[in-house]
Inverse folding.
């Protein structure tokens, strides 16, 4: 009997290869010759870039750890005023990307900014500017990223806290642990993998952040990447810095993994999972818990929202100047089209992996999901380089017309690079949905006479329906907020809320940036509210 | 060409690149026969079922169903084309369908294939799952999921039904009732079945043949009576754990001498020359109790089994022997008591190794 061609395996392999191309381009460039930009940089700003990146990374990690685990701990284990509201409201901070947070921070604390206006309205005319702290430069960047990114740690550690069995907490009480000792010795170590996962996302986002550091004019390695490409046209060096960034992040993961040794952090549900009983806080403890959560919620969401809202009301002409409907349609078009493409291909790829059970394919898939760790700037540039090379070396040499225009400065190009950047979100999201489907379910389907295609269409897709909807929302959210890829690869005269806000801000027209920023926050909030229902249901609440 | 309904010939069963059970051969002669495979956990019983179902491939030997090869080195009929049904030990119900819908999927597969149709109501009553028909798989217990899965498999009315520990999660008090009903329905519908279990009582009751898998081999494949009374190796004896092996010497074609128990007579399962040193299998029902006997051994343990007691007795050489006594025996013995064994000792089947 001839061996049948496994179409699922081939499709899955093809998808992984396509996603891997720009990622491999980045790594291969590591060994290419660079321009003299490296020499110039080495003698001038390289140390500063590294130090700035390091300071930014460490500070943001510390603050997001405190805010993320602190709020997650409070809402998971205790009842206090509005604790149920904070449970999902804290996720709303995702709606505010770091660059919009940076605009709000500057708008509020700047000379004659919103803080100045409030003080003048309250206490009359005065020279308040010298007494208003200025959160710009490094501090501004740290604050913007902390409040914008802490939700990664919050969501993952909260989910982990919810799955911790009451039995373990009761055991802590039985051993005479105080609440702090229980938190430090039982709860926190149990949630360690989730917290590390959250922090690693924060680390990747911080090192890849472009909008906020550009706005505050901080020289980080990301700026170095951008400059080496823009000013020196030295993609190889840009890629080399990006590779260093990646290696740095991966080594952090490895160190963390090694430090775990053989400790296990998950619980055997069959071994008696017991639902937690939330403890009711009273008196000052209740007040402190409320104040802490409210502070984080206010700073991460209400503050930027109200600042943008205030400026929109104060300068209504900006609202009328803006083509809101066009921007809205462009933003949603990009987000929904890309997420749909991502979902379809990630589903096929996941199913291919599942039915083929092939080690080489698994390795390819793992490599292909590392796109999320590569800064958007680098991916966009790597894509342009690849298309240019392909066009010059292959297409033109075969005598065909140039294909550059099809891919560069087009929606197709944007969708492809979004695909590579956010493939890990879709792939991992679907993978975690698939992990809940016992392989015996597939096998039962085959034994009931279902073909692989019928099993996929009739069993898997309906079962994964909710997960898919959630992933679409999550990816849309990322694309709505995404800046560098859109900025570099968008078609001429094709703007989204994010690019409009960035262009206004870079022209020092912060008031004009307020309107698109406000719309961006509002749309993202709607997506988050829909998604939060899924997140809360997934965690049995 | 043989006329066996199902046949496995010289097959190595492989899972995860590892050979789980080597060189297996057995056959089911008639349609409707039930075969039970017994063995300890992790030995590869499930791998055998998965391979027969087509979920694992083989590299040597062949598997035939109705005289057609369904698995060999070169042939592998896809699981969906075999008309073999496998009820998994773990929950394999489709999570997004109700129990009823899950079961009905089984009926859809074999619409009109057999003359004697089994209705949903019959199967649901048989397995007592009426109450959970509208539930989703995550809302039912492991035992209920197992019964629902069994119902789905039964409704497909396959050529060959494979059951992997079908009643392992079912409550003990309900188990025997289901065993009786299951056997009845399999027999009346003539569904040829292979059942994997680690419960020897279940295997002896349900199976017309039993296979014992030990040390990666099919050690014995025989009638349940023979497997129990005439085990073919010490490994099988140890696995069934229902007897003791004591040293003895053959003294005649019908007797042997034991230092522990004296002369023992009986029917030898295989002839052995006089003077041969052997290990004699003594099963709990081989010895009889007699308070008046002068052969007395010390009681070291008592197991109450409802209808009977199993006393464990210690010989002067510290060997432990089991003996079964009806629980309505006139009086009970305590640990440390001297316990009389009836003489002369006569054993129906003398099994020596």
């Amino acid at each position: 009997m001839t061996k049948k061609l496994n179409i699922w395996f081939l499709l899955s392999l093809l998808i992984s290869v396509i996603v891997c191309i720009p990622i491999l381009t980045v790594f291969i460039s590591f060994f290419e010759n660079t321009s003299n930009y490296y020499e110039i940089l080495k003698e001038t700003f390289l140390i500063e870039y590294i130090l700035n990146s390091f300071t930014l990374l460490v500070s943001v990690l510390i603050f997001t750890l405190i805010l993320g685990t602190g709020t997650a701990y409070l809402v998971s284990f205790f009842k206090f005023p509005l604790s149920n509201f904070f449970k999902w409201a804290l996720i709303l901070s995702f709606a505010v990307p770091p660059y919009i947070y940076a605009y709000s921070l500057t708008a509020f604390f700047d000379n004659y900014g919103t803080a100045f206006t409030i003080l003048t309205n309250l206490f009359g005319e005065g020279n308040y500017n010298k007494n208003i702290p200025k959160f710009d430069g490094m501090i501004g960047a740290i604050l913007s990223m902390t409040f914008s990114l802490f939700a990664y740690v919050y969501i993952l550690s909260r989910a982990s806290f919810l799955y911790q069995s009451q039995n373990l907490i009761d055991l802590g009480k039985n051993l005479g642990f105080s609440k702090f000792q229980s938190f430090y010795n039982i709860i926190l170590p149990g949630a360690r993998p989730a917290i590390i996962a959250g922090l690693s996302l924060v680390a990747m986002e911080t090192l890849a952040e472009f909008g906020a550091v550009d706005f505050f004019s901080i020289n980080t390695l990301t700026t170095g990447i951008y400059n080496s490409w823009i000013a020196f046209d030295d993609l190889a060096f840009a890629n080399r810095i990006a590779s260093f960034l990646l290696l740095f992040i991966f080594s952090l993961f490895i160190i963390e993994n090694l430090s775990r040794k053989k400790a296990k952090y998950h619980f055997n549900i069959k071994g008696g999972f017991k639902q937690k009983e939330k403890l009711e806080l009273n008196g000052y403890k209740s007040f402190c818990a409320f104040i802490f959560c409210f502070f984080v919620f206010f700073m991460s969401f209400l503050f930027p929202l109200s600042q943008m809202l205030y400026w929109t009301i104060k300068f209504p002409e900006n609202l009328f100047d803006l083509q809101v409907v066009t921007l809205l349609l462009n933003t949603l078009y990009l987000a929904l089209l890309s997420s749909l493409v991502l979902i379809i291909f990630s589903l096929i790829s996941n199913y291919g992996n599942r039915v083929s059970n092939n080690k080489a394919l698994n390795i390819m898939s793992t490599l292909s999901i590392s796109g999320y760790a590569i800064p958007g700037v680098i991916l966009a540039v790597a894509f342009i380089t690849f298309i240019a090379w392909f066009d010059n070396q292959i297409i033109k040499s075969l005598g065909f017309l140039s294909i550059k225009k099809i891919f560069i400065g087009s929606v197709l190009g944007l969708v492809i690079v979004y695909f590579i950047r956010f493939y890990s979100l879709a792939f991992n999201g679907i993978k975690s949905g698939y992990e809940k489907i016992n392989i015996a379910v597939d096998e039962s389907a085959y034994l009931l006479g279902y073909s692989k295609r019928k099993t996929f269409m009739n069993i898997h897709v309906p079962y994964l329906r909710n997960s898919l909807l959630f992933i679409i929302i999550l990816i849309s959210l990322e694309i709505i907020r995404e800046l560098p890829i859109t900025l570099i690869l968008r078609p001429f005269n094709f703007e989204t809320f994010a690019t409009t806000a960035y262009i206004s801000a870079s022209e020092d027209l912060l008031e004009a940036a307020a309107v698109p920023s406000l719309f961006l926050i509002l749309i993202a909030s709607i997506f988050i509210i829909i998604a939060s229902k899924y997140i809360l249901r997934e965690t049995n609440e | 060409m043989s006329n066996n309904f199902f046949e496995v010939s010289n097959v190595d069963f492989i899972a995860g690149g590892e050979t789980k059970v080597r060189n297996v051969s057995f056959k089911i002669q008639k349609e409707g026969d039930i075969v039970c495979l017994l063995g300890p956990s992790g030995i590869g019983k499930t791998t055998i079922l998965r391979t027969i179902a087509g979920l694992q491939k083989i590299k040597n030997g062949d598997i035939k169903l109705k005289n057609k090869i369904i698995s060999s080195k070169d042939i592998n009929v896809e699981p969906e084309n075999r008309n073999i049904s496998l009820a998994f030990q773990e929950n394999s119900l489709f999570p997004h369908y109700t129990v009823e819908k899950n079961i009905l999927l089984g009926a859809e597969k074999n619409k009109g294939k057999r003359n004697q149709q089994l209705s949903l109501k019959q199967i649901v009553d048989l397995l007592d799952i009426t109450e959970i028909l509208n539930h989703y798989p995550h809302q039912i217990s492991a035992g209920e999921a197992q019964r629902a899965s069994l119902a789905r498999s039964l409704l497909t009315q396959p050529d060959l039904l494979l059951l992997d520990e079908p009643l392992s999660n079912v409550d003990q008090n309900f188990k025997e009732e289901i065993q009786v009903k299951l056997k009845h329905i399999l027999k009346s519908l003539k569904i040829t079945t292979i059942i994997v279990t680690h419960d020897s009582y279940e295997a002896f009751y349900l199976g017309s043949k039993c296979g014992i898998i030990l040390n990666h081999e099919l050690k014995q494949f025989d009638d349940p009576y023979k497997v129990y009374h005439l085990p073919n190796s010490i490994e099988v004896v140890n696995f069934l754990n229902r007897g003791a092996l004591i040293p003895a010497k053959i003294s005649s074609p019908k007797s042997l001498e034991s230092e522990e128990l004296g002369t023992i007579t009986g029917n030898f399962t295989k002839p052995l020359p006089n003077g041969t040193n052997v290990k004699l299998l003594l099963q709990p029902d081989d010895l009889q109790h007699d308070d008046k006997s002068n052969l007395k051994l010390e009681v070291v343990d008592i197991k109450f089994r409802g209808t009977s007691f199993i006393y464990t007795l210690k010989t002067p050489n510290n060997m432990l022997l089991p003996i079964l006594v009806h629980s309505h025996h006139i009086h009970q013995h305590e640990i440390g008591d001297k316990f009389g064994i009836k003489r002369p000792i006569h054993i129906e089947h003398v099994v020596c190794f």
